[in-house]
């Protein structure tokens, strides 16, 4: 199993990235503030527009380090990618299957059903821990029904319709799972671009980080993250990464954000309200979020399919590996990630 290395998060908007030998160097106003050997990291995520030197980009490319640029608010800007790796025959099979409507619909149905099932399991865990709640019970029934419908969807349009109904039911009762600081973290449904409240601001940042990890994992196993089976193909859009992250939204994203709020690791002081520009995290809040994110990725679970201990940060890599095996016909079906 691949070792989970660190991801370097650069949260200072004025930071500039360069290289010195085989080291990644972070400078602010031409003063070095941090350096780390490239061998110790597998990814760099920087929040800001100052950029990176061509030498640093080449070092990342040569070392297999993903380099992702986000806006100061956490919105995806671009991702620097080196030479294509992996077995060309695997990618050729991937491209052919992406044009196979029956095959791609099958994989899409599995991923969306897994997403709905993981939504359901989060709500069922709340009921187990805190007792019955009629609204949550009703939402669980909607999720159960639409998971079944999704698995039997006749086309992707109907599939996304069932996904939409399930997501609306789930997000309607998500405020029930906010147990502490309720008055400071209102949530009235999913919104973005820009997020209108602190919960949505954190969800958007978490989903961005998950998508980046999925894209890097797919590249690692030799798949093309830009050619998916559910999300439409668009220039610059990592469609397959967006497909695969559907399985992880609830477990890696939603549960993480709820934990930050309920454990009071994040407070209202960590956000700024900017009128029509929505809600953004402060530098301190973003650092708190990313530190907790890195710590979470180092925790281990028993993978439901492999039945082995896996660091949470390696879950995208494991699922990418399973998808590659399915495309190569090494296994009979794609084993989606399901939480208990």
Structural overview:
Helices cover 47% and strands 16% of the residues. It has helices spanning 54-63, 88-98, 101-130, 134-151, 156-173, 198-221, 239-245, 249-262, 283-297, 315-327; strands spanning 6-10, 15-20, 23-28, 31-37, 41-47, 66-70, 76-80, 271-273, 279-281, 300-302, 309-311. The radius of gyration is 20 Å and the shape is globular. The two termini are 23 Å apart.
| Structure summary, number of beta strands | 11
Radius of gyration: 20 Å
Number of helices: 10
User: Which shape, going by the Cα principal axes?
Assistant: globular
Beta-strand content bin: 15-25%
How many strands, which pairing sense, and closed or not: the largest β-sheet? Answer: 4 strands, mixed
Class from helix and strand fractions: alpha+beta
Overall pLDDT, averaged?
A: 89
Spatial gap, N to C terminus: 23 Å
Model regions low in confidence, pLDDT < 50 over at least 5 residues: none
Topology:
Elements: E1 6-10, E2 15-20, E3 23-28, E4 31-37, E5 41-47, H1 54-63, E6 66-70, E7 76-80, H2 88-98, H3 101-130, H4 134-151, H5 156-173, H6 198-221, H7 239-245, H8 249-262, E8 271-273, E9 279-281, H9 283-297, E10 300-302, E11 309-311, H10 315-327
Parallel strand pairs: 1-5, 5-6
Antiparallel strand pairs: 2-3, 3-4, 6-7, 8-9, 10-11
Features:
340 residues; four-stranded mixed beta sheet; three-stranded antiparallel beta sheet
